[in-house]
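Lab notebook, design round three. We kept the backbone fixed and only want residue identities now. Task for the bench partner: fill in a sequence for the structure below.
Input structure tokens:
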């Protein structure tokens, strides 16, 4: 892990000493196992040559600018990505604001003006499907051609496969949205999580079932409705609780809006105000119960199943 990690948010803020660097470029949504393999190679090459290990990521997602109707929901914010890249050993990240001007840059101009002249990349490490420049017209063949002209090395990192499936952000999104969070965890190399401030609920849980911490769903990827084994982290104190979480509409109480409600299985002295909920295993579908008492009985059964899970799986 880099001890002097730097995040830069626009080209004008790039310092003269950003490079020389080994660099990877991409959206890195989720920073999954495939991304991590590239990053590990970046860090290794940078350390071997006395360079900095760097990443260039784009925000917002390019499709949100050029084709909003086709833009995917994202699994991670730009800061989430930076946090994981730092943990993997990256020294500095440029979060490049993706706008119409950047979208219209010719591929060779993007590499020459930004990657080489501005970031001083000596090596560029990407996957074989890497695309760049206006209308994604640049590919790894062009990158390799530009290398000798602009004095950088192009290194292509093979894709990572797990159980016969190529790891990709789109596949992981599908897994999470179908409720298969345990498999998504394997492809991400970490639990899928949702962050956010705790919001006020309707007070039904504390009075009729069990007290919960509620998150308002954001615009990103949300697991399929249902009940999950989770872990919940207080983002201020970093304390972690075992928990169960319901994603759904509270049909027993005729709810109309989607909610994320988490019940902590361990004692709470001071309730957190900003939390991260990590989704580990889907227990069951959300369903309507005849009475709040029947729902509470089911919740206590879910708690026992979760406790059995945590006895088998250490933190």
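Proposed sequence:
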């Amino acid at each position: 892990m880099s001890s002097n990690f730097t995040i830069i948010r626009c080209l004008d803020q790039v310092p003269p000493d950003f490079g020389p660097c080994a660099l990877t470029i991409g959206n890195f949504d989720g920073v999954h196992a495939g991304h991590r393999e590239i990053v590990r190679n970046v860090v290794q090459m940078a350390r071997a040559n006395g360079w900095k290990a760097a990443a260039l990521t784009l925000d917002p997602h390019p499709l949100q600018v050029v084709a909003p109707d086709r833009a995917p929901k994202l699994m991670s914010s730009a800061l989430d990505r930076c946090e994981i890249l730092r943990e993997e050993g990256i020294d500095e990240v440029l979060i490049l604001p993706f706008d119409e001007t950047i979208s219209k840059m010719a591929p060779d101009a993007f590499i020459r003006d930004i990657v080489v002249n501005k970031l001083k990349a000596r090596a560029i490490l990407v996957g074989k499907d890497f695309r760049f420049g206006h209308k994604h017209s640049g590919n790894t063949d062009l990158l390799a051609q530009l290398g000798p002209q602009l004095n950088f090395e192009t290194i292509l990192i093979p894709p990572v496969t797990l159980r016969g499936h190529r790891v990709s952000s789109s596949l992981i999104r599908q897994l999470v949205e179908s409720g298969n969070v345990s498999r998504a965890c394997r492809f991400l190399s970490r639990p899928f999580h949702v962050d956010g401030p705790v919001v006020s609920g309707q007070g039904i849980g504390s009075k009729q079932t069990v007290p919960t911490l509620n998150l308002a769903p954001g615009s990103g990827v949300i697991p399929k409705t249902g009940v999950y084994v989770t872990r919940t982290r207080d983002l201020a104190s970093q304390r972690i609780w075992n928990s169960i979480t319901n994603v759904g509409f509270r049909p027993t109480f005729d709810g109309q809006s989607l909610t994320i409600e988490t019940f902590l299985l361990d004692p709470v002295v001071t309730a957190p105000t900003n939390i991260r909920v990590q989704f580990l295993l889907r227990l069951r579908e959300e369903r309507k119960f005849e009475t709040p008492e029947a729902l509470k009985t089911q919740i206590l059964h879910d708690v026992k199943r979760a406790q059995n899970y945590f006895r088998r799986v250490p933190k």
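Keep this in mind before ordering anything: The chain has two domains: 6-162, 191-312.
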